[in-house]
Amino acid sequence: MKTLRDIMRPSFLFIVQKSATVSEAVRAMTEHNVGIVVVLDGDRLTGVFSERDVVRRVVERGLDPARTPVGEVMTTELVVGDADEDYQSAMRKMDQANIRHLPVVSEGRLLSMLSIRDLMRVDLADKGEELEYLRHYLFQVPPEVAASRPVR
Predict the structure, then answer these.
(1) Would you say residue 146 has pLDDT above 70?
(2) DSSP single-letter state for residue 19
(3) Main-chain dihedrals φ then ψ at residue 19, nearest 5 degrees
(4) pLDDT tens digits for 71-98?
(5) CA 136, CA 113: separation in Å to the nearest integer?
(6) How far apart are CA 139 and CA 133, in angstroms?
């Protein structure tokens, strides 16, 4: 079974510092066409900031995005995946936490970010391979039957 390490793209990690403004974080999300950025305090993971956070914690509260530090409105209760965790376990974890993005860590070090879409693609490919294997298994002609058939 594939692990998160097998799936992750190390370059798919967009970072802002805790002191960055909401406007700067939104600009980073827009530039990279992503819905979430990782928030660091120095080199330590302290949170994530998503489009949902913009709506619920900035716009809804009437805060000024140009003056509000991401550190004040980021999500701090993080669910993370270990790089050696299997992808199905990570999917269950994301479903239970009702999240769409999962920071991937190894030995306390942030490596990448995976979306539920990334994991679903792997799951669909695995299911397709399994179906193909079962199809071949169910419809294969046993060697003794094949040997007894006349050649045409």
Answers:
(1) no
(2) T
(3) -85, -10
(4) 999 999 999 999 999 999 999 999 999 9
(5) 36
(6) 10
Nearest by Cα to 49 from 23, 12, 74: 74
Strands 36-41 and 44-50: antiparallel
Q: Virtual CA dihedral for 55, 59, 64, 68, nearest 10 degrees? A: -40
Give the 3-state DSSP-derived string for 54-98, with helices as H, strands as E and coil as C.
HHHHHHCCCCCCCCCEHHHHCECCCCCEECCCEHHHHHHHHHHHC
pLDDT mean over 48-59: 97
| CATH fold of 4-140 | CBS-domain (3.10.580)
Mapping DSSP to helix (H, G, I), strand (E, B) and coil, where does residue 16 land? Answer: strand
The residue-averaged pLDDT of 116-126 equals 90
Q: What is the value of pTM for the model shown?
A: 0.80
Q: Which two tokens stand for residue 108?
A: 């306390």
pLDDT of residue 52: 94
In this predicted structure, what is the pLDDT of residue 144?
77
Largest Cα span, the chain: 82
Element (H, E) at 146: helix 143-148
